[in-house]
Specification:
Layout lengths: L2 E7 L7 H12 L3 E7 L5 H10 L4 E4 L4 H7 L2 E2 L1 H6 L4 E5 L2 E5 L2 H11 L8 E5 L3 H12 L4 E6 L2 H11 L7 E6 L5 E8 L3 H4 L9 E8 L7 H8 L4 E2 L2 H16 L10
Parallel strand pairs: 1-2, 1-3, 4-6, 7-8, 7-10, 8-9, 10-11, 11-12
Antiparallel strand pairs: 3-5, 5-6
Helix pairs in contact: 1-10, 5-6, 5-10
This protein binds 2'-monophosphoadenosine-5'-diphosphate.
Length: about 260
């Protein structure tokens, strides 16, 4: 029987998840249908429950419902608990399970580029939901040091406070966004600046060797600056594919190869 999946969000038209999951299915021989669901802003819970009552197997969750999905779950993975946000749902033994595959998606995308996270020094720009979703998997991937830079320093400090004991081998620090300096193996842009078209100015006192922009399909002043410095850089399409592969493998028990879909 064809397994039913969906991605829920508002707006949802822009989502590329259906095409990715159908491509994974074609490659692995899984019989599935994956659709987009536009939920009303006040209708996430009802729409999700209806989907699973009607036999839906798994659902991805996107903006603005990831925190509501977290709150709705009966069981959460460790990384979803730390992220306080859920992007992957499924039913098991009558319970709603939630995971967050964004961070592992980012780690897999970085590794697929041949960039080495082990013992690395990472600077993350931003301290919002996008950063919270990825920081624990980056720590688990062996980062030696992660510095969180944010315009509002208190938000970065809160994140460090929440995560400081999660992986003892990783040193966590904060810095104000207008004080950026030092040398890093990676700088990751997890601010929403590229989505709104705002310019993030990277000062000359900041030295970095790889640049990862989490957004994709948009122009990015962050990527422009990395390219001007001739630093290896990429947008977030690989992360999108990586999080989808993680969800697909949870639901279907078979894991497509990331490199086949980049
Ligand atoms: P998301 O879920 O995408 O992370 P968010 O929780 O609203 O969204 O967080 C947005 C992040 O981008 C925050 O770190 C925000 O900085 P503040 O905490 O100081 O608001 C950052 N951000 C957004 N626009 C920015 C800009 N123009 N310059 C610098 N940082 C910006």
């Amino acid at each position: 029987m064809t397994k039913q999946f969906a991605v829920i969000g508002n707006p949802i038209e822009q989502s590329r998840s259906p095409e990715l999951h159908h491509a994974f299915a074609a490659k692995t021989g899984v019989d599935l249908n994956y659709k987009k669901i536009l939920a009303p802003l006040d209708g996430f819970e009802k729409t999700t429950k209806d989907f699973f009552v009607q036999g839906g197997v798994g659902m991805n969750v996107t903006v603005p419902f990831k925190e509501q999905a977290f709150a709705l779950c009966d069981q959460l993975t460790e990384r979803a608990k730390i992220a306080k946000a859920v992007n992957t749902l499924w039913m098991q033994d009558g319970k709603l399970f939630g995971d967050n595959t964004d961070g592992q998606g980012l780690v897999a995308a970085i590794q697929a580029l041949g960039w080495n996270l082990a013992n690395s020094r990472i600077l993350i720009l931003g301290a919002g939901g996008a950063t919270r979703g990825v920081i624990y998997p980056l720590m688990q991937a062996g980062a030696k040091q992660i510095v969180i830079a944010n315009r509002t320093l208190a938000r970065a400090e809160q994140l460090v406070d929440d995560l400081k004991t999660a992986v003892p081998e990783t040193e966590l620090q904060t810095i104000a966004l207008d004080q950026l300096s030092g040398e890093f193996d990676f700088v990751i842009n997890a601010t929403s600046a590229s989505l709104t078209g705002d310019v993030l100015q990277l000062p000359e006192t900041l030295v970095f060797h790889h640049a990862y922009e989490m957004a994709y399909g948009k122009s990015s002043s962050f990527l422009d600056q990395a390219q001007a410095r001739q630093v290896p850089s990429t947008d977030g399409f690989g992360m999108l594919v990586g999080q989808a592969i993680e969800a697909f493998s949870i639901w279907n028990g078979v894991k497509p190869e990331l490199k086949d879909f980049l």
